[in-house]
TrEMBL record:
The keyword Transport applies. It holds the Pfam family Bac_globin. Heme binds at H120. This is Group 2 truncated hemoglobin GlbO. Keywords: Heme, Hydroxylation, Iron, Metal-binding, Oxygen transport, Transport. Gene3D superfamilies: Globins. One of its GO terms (molecular function) is heme binding. InterPro entries: GlbO/GLB3-like (IPR044203), Globin-like_sf (IPR009050), Globin/Proto (IPR012292), Globin_bac-like_CS (IPR019795), Hemoglobin_trunc (IPR001486). It comes from Actinopolyspora mortivallis. Belongs to the truncated hemoglobin family. Group II subfamily. It comes from the Bacteria. Homododecamer. Its cofactor is heme. The keyword Metal-binding applies. The lineage of its organism: Bacteria, Bacillati, Actinomycetota, Actinomycetes, Actinopolysporales.
Length: 127
């Protein structure tokens, strides 16, 4: 019996998440609000962590947790001041990336709804 196809498989697997996250970080690199939040000069480590996290979240390989342990994303974002402006800037970058990756409308909507919810849950500064 074959295992059912995951959303990760349906959208094209690793190549799709690689393209999405690479495009996202090209936008972050140019964003005056977001770029200073990233502690490392080279964004490639951050890019790899987000790519592996998303691949795992959507049913792909569990490499993120093998390397980083339980995601605990709210806790991992606690050191960074994330207000509504930072949330909106993050979503702006992701919207651009999402619109450029080859997906069906349904797949794009599903990913976007998730990103809106997840970005909102990362807000840790309300004033
Ligand atoms: C890490 C900012 C939302 C997933 C980070 C880092 C920053 C950051 C500064 C540290 C970079 C690094 O790993 O070197 C933000 C801001 C957000 C946001 C400003 C606005 C709301 C999100 C969302 C997700 C996410 C919505 C998931 C859908 C991750 C992951 C890491 C990370 C997986 C790496 C965690 C680790 O393993 O250390 N983020 N983030 N972030 N972010 Fe975000």
């Amino acid at each position: 019996m074959s295992t059912p196809e995951t959303f990760y498989d349906q959208v094209g697997g690793e190549a799709t998440f690689r393209a999405l996250v690479a495009r996202f970080y090209r936008e972050v690199a140019e964003d005056e609000l977001l770029r200073p939040l990233y502690p490392e000069e080279d964004l490639s480590g951050a890019e790899e962590r987000l790519r592996l996290f998303l691949m795992q979240y959507w049913g792909g390989p569990q490499t993120y947790s093998e390397q980083r342990g339980h995601p605990r994303l709210r806790m991992r974002h606690a050191p960074f001041k994330i207000g509504l402006a930072e949330r909106d800037a993050w979503l702006r970058c992701m919207r651009i990336a999402l619109d450029e990756v080859e997906l069906t409308d349904e797949q794009r909507d599903r990913l976007w709804r998730y990103f809106e919810m997840a970005a909102h849950s990362m807000v840790n500064s309300w004033f």
